[in-house]
Specification:
By secondary structure, this protein is α+β, with helices and mostly antiparallel strands. The protein folds into two domains: 220 residues, no CATH class; 167 residues, no CATH class. It contains eleven helices and 20 strands. Strands 2-1-5-4-3-6-7 form a seven-stranded antiparallel β-sheet, sandwiched between helices. Strand 6 and strand 7 form a beta hairpin.
Length: 524
């Protein structure tokens, strides 16, 4: 029996490594800087019942939503009479199925053993441009899903181990950057095939029966660890409320969280109804954000697999910004609303766990989308990135300066890479001094990132915390809010809203100053 448990532990870590190796392959093979430099992708392995059994430490909003997206995809295929066979691979980006937003293209590879479906390899990667009304496919002016790009329900991109060129051509022809789209797709396909090879090596080395027993052991062991930690947490019901900025109005997020010793639940009844702006978060995003918040309260030994996710229950009323009805636009819900969901869950738990909950972080992915025609090549280009900010202070610790927080885990796009590929010249990239909230422990500093246009560039900003700063805790002061500015070539300075768009002409400079984290404890 002890020998079996040893094998199960080896298989557990092999599945995690398998997912990590898929991610390394995808990142190194991708064409776009967004994946190759920023690592905006995620990989996981699921069993035939769509339960996560191994995942890499990639993007929280991807990983938390993947089992929902894979399950929805399998259900869609069954309802439409589509059968999976060996050699197939499925592509989907419809947010109401895949669980995030249109830019996130998901590829799923079914793995068979002796003719039976035995597992599913999945990866999700953010394609910079999938069509829509503006470069990078994310625009605050979108009022319906179709404005955000090309919608793809589950379709086979591979049959009998051969790429379907017709499907690939359709996707590429709807992108402003087809060269990068094709390269990133090939990288995703290769990552899944690598994962399948590694998984079959596990079957061969330990036998398929041992693998199946190991899956049950991995999930049940993780479940018992989670419940054990819940039993040591305070029991009760707490409420939190926070807001997203919507032009001159605010969107309310309200959560009632409950811990009963065996399960964590979050009920978002009372949250604002869905809007005709891209701030709606599909259910998969909402679940991912809640899972992230809860996971950060647990020990490092806990894995983000089905043994954990089954203990978290999310109530998100249909028709609200945390569970919209199609065809509401959703690109920013994946990016901004997900951040605020984490904030509101943390806020609710601050009273119950004052030494575990941090003050609010910068609270936005500070999304920058831009594009145009490159003067050197005459070709269209599109660029996307998120910009870090200050992490909130915690009991006993200052906040961290200039980091991605909560629902994003991407890297920084190096200035040299951006200047090499796109017609811009950077003026500054520095910490924003004094932006962290004062407190016994200070909040982390935000960032300033500024560049000058060398050609005509269409720019979109999708951020937050411009009017409502990140809150402090236990008497700590809020962090400094974000600022979005344009300095024109003639010296005039224009202030942009947190969700805005503009045209940069040669010589114009855009300046993005991200929010600082909230402070913790009274400053004195």
């Amino acid at each position: 029996m002890a020998g079996d448990r040893l094998k199960y532990e080896i298989i557990k870590h092999a599945l995690i490594y398998l997912s990590e190796e898929m991610g390394v392959s995808l990142k190194k093979s991708a064409y776009s800087p967004n994946i190759r430099e920023r690592a905006d992708h995620s990989c996981a392995v699921l069993d035939a019942r769509c339960r996560t059994i191994g995942q890499a430490e990639h993007i929280p909003v991807h990983i938390g939503s993947l089992p929902i997206g894979v399950s929805n995809t399998m259900k869609f295929l069954k309802e439409n009479g589509e059968e999976l066979a060996e050699g197939d691979m499925i592509l989907v980006n419809d947010p109401y199925i895949a669980g995030t937003h249109l830019n996130d293209v998901t590829l799923i590879r079914p793995v068979f053993h002796r003719g039976e479906l035995s597992a599913l390899l999945a990866n999700k990667a953010h394609h910079v441009d999938v069509g829509g009304i503006s470069p990078a496919s994310i625009s605050y002016s979108s009022s319906e899903l179709q404005h955000e790009g090309f919608i793809i329900p589950p379709v086979k991109i591979m049959e009998k181990d051969k790429i379907r060129s017709d499907v690939v051509r359709i996707l590429a022809s709807n992108s402003r950057t087809p060269y990068n789209t094709l390269g990133d797709l090939r990288a995703q396909v290769a990552a899944n095939l690598l994962g399948e090879m590694r998984l079959k090596e596990i079957f061969q080395k330990y036998t398929f029966e041992t693998f199946m027993d190991a899956v049950d052991y991995i999930l049940e062991t993780n479940y018992r660890l989670v419940v054990s930690e819940y039993s040591r947490m305070p029991r009760g019901v707490w409420r939190g409320r926070d807001y997203l900025e919507l032009e001159d109005d605010l969107l309310k997020l309200e959560a009632e969280v409950r811990l009963d010793g065996e399960r964590f639940s979050a009920d978002f009844t009372g949250t604002s109804m869905q809007v005709d702006k891209p701030l709606n978060a599909v259910y998969g995003v909402t679940c991912a954000a809640v899972l992230f918040a809860v996971r950060t309260l647990l020990s490092e030994d806990i894995l983000l697999n089905d043994g954990f996710t089954r203990t978290v229950h999310v109530v998100a009323p249909e028709g609200t910004i945390v569970n919209p009805v199609k065809p509401a636009p959703v690109s920013g819900g994946n990016l901004e609303t997900s951040q605020r969901i984490v904030d509101v869950v943390y806020m609710a738990l601050a009273e119950a766990m004052p030494e575990k909950i941090p003050a609010a972080s910068h609270g936005s992915m500070n999304n920058l989308m831009m594009g145009g025609v490159h003067p050197a090549t005459g070709r269209k280009w599109a660029f996307y990135e998120t910009i870090g900010g200050g992490y909130g202070a915690r009991y006993g610790l200052d906040g961290v300066d200039g980091v991605q927080s909560n629902m994003t885990n991407t890297m920084n796009t190096p200035i040299e890479v951006i200047e090499h590929y796109y017609p811009v010249k950077f003026e500054s990239y520095t910490f924003r001094e004094g932006s962290g909230g004062h407190g016994r422990w200070r909040g982390g500093m935000g960032l300033e990132r500024a560049f000058t246009a060398l050609a005509r560039i269409q720019v979109q900003i999708l951020g937050d915390r411009e009017r409502i700063p990140p809150w402090g805790l236990a008497g700590g002061e809020p962090g400094k809010p974000s600022e979005y500015l344009v300095r024109r070539a003639d010296g005039r300075v224009e202030r942009l809203k947190s969700k805005d768009g503009t045209i940069l002409n040669p010589g114009d400079t855009i300046i993005i100053r991200t929010a600082g984290g909230g402070g913790y404890g009274r400053p004195e």
